[in-house]
Amino acid sequence: MSVAALGIEIVFVFFLALFLLHRFGDFKKQHRLVLVATLLAWWLCFIIVFIIPLDVSTTIYNRCIAKNAVTPTPINPTSRVLQAMELYPKRNHADLLACGLLDITVSHLIQLLKYQLQTIGIAAANTWGLFLLVLLMGYGLVELPRSHWNGAKKGYLLMKTYFKAAKLMTEKADAEENLEDVME
After folding, report:
1. How far apart are alpha carbons 68 and 39 in whole angstroms?
2. Model confidence, pTM
3. Average pLDDT for 74-84
4. Mind telling me which residue stretches traverse the membrane in this protein (predicted)?
5. Which of 17, 76, 167, 173 could pair with 43 in a Cys bridge, judged by C-beta atoms 3.0 to 4.6 Å apart?
6. How many C-beta neighbours within 10 Å does residue 1 have?
7. Per-residue pLDDT for 182 more than 60?
8. DSSP 113
9. Which residues contact 122 (CB under 8 A, 6 or more apart)?
10. 69 by DSSP, 3-state: which?
11. DSSP letters along 8-66, please?
């Protein structure tokens, strides 16, 4: 992994987390320790999301350089199809063309099945995992501390209890009306 790219990404992610915390948080009302803990948690979560693509691309690049090979491109199957189409007028046999195209298609599908479908599956699994990671860490790092923080405030807890009591009284009155309607 390139040290310069890694350093730039770490600094960028730190300022992104700081910007989002400033945008969605309240620096004046929150305690400094809460702000630092939230900044650290968001920074580490964002680092995971931003570093993995850099790591994967650097690994693939280093593997290409180490093997000194060019990755397969769609030009290769196209050139084989064009070669088979050039041979068609010379041989004048449709069966030969069909068998050749079928052979080319099957060989490339096997090659695709072996390497590229495995890569697509791994990429899809990693994407789904990162989506769940960000979603669940966002819930765990935002909603759970907020509920504990609000649960410790007496005024908030009292207002929440008043609201629940009023809701229960309304439901009780509705249930009594339904009972009277059923009894008649």
Report:
1. 43
2. 0.41
3. 56
4. 6-21, 33-52, 120-142
5. 17
6. 14
7. yes
8. I
9. none
10. coil
11. HHHHHHHHHHHHHHHHHS-TTTS-HHHHHHHHHHHHHHHHHHHHHHHHHHHHHHHHHHH
